[in-house]
Amino acid sequence: MNISDIQKCQEEYEKLLKESPLHGTIDKICKDILEQKNNAMAMEFTRIICDLLKRYGVYVHCTETKFGERITTNSIEDQYGIVFDSMDFSQHDKEFMDKIKELEKQLDRSQTTINQIDDILEKLFGVRHDMVDKPDEFEKILSERAKGNVTDFLPTEPIKVDDMLINASKKRTNCMTGKEYDKYIFGKWQLRQIAEHLLVYCNHNGEVEE
After folding, report:
1. Per-residue confidence at 63, pLDDT binned at 50, 70, 90?
2. Which end of the chain lies in a sparser environment, N or C, as judged by fewer CB atoms within 10 Å?
3. Exposure of 112 in the CB half-sphere (CA atoms within 13 A)
4. 182: three-class secondary structure by DSSP
5. Does 135 have pLDDT greater than 50?
């Protein structure tokens, strides 16, 4: 098989791929090989398919036939005594299966976290996210119930309210080390703004004694 034959096969193959669907193209190539008895094209087509299978981790299984026993009527069995009868996709699928398993683990962790959050919300506000159909409805219900229960989260002593604001923190993860650390929610300038707003409110509203 010379270079011109290979090039001709390649050009014909690319042309057929553009003109017809994949399965139809393969059927036509096989039909042409049989009708034309073109051994060069048959060898090239076989090599291409084998290279593609090997490249993507698909391995062909074959069965040896006993002397005098026939499974098929093709020339490969006649000459070599083997039949290609199955394919092993395990290596090909390994990457995808590993990814699916990892995604399933992430989904389980996320669902566990959601359930824990729902338990907290139900305990504090009597509502879970799956009790409503739309996120905006859930937000509205949660907002209304939070307004009514806001005093439940505040200390009864005024001096402890500022202590709560000063020490309020949340967990952060260092992007360089991956370690968690506590970060204050309100900086000094934010606390100063809160204090100034409270002072303005007090100066413009008379004190009401109950």
Report:
1. low
2. C
3. 6
4. strand
5. yes
What is the DSSP code string of 82-117?
EEEEEEE-HHHHHHHHHHHHHHHHHHHHHHHHHHHH
One-letter amino acid identity for 25?
T
- The token pair at 131 is 């009790």
DSSP sequence for 37-97? T-HHHHHHHHHHHHHHHHHTT-EEEEEEPPTT--S--SHHHHHHSEEEEEEE-HHHHHHHH
Amino acid identity of residue 40, one-letter, is A
Handedness of CA 112, 103, 138, 149 (dihedral sign): positive
Mean pLDDT of the 16-28 span: 62
For residue 1, the model assigns a pLDDT of 44
Residue 146, CA distances (Å) to 28, 116, 140, 171 in order: 69, 18, 10, 23
Tokens at residue 92, please? 């090909």
- Check the CA dihedral 198-202-208-210 and report its sign: positive
Hey, where are the domains in the chain?
1-57, 104-152, 154-205
Global confidence as pTM: 0.35
Average pLDDT score over residue span 181-209: 83
Query: For residue 20, what pLDDT is reported?
Result: 53
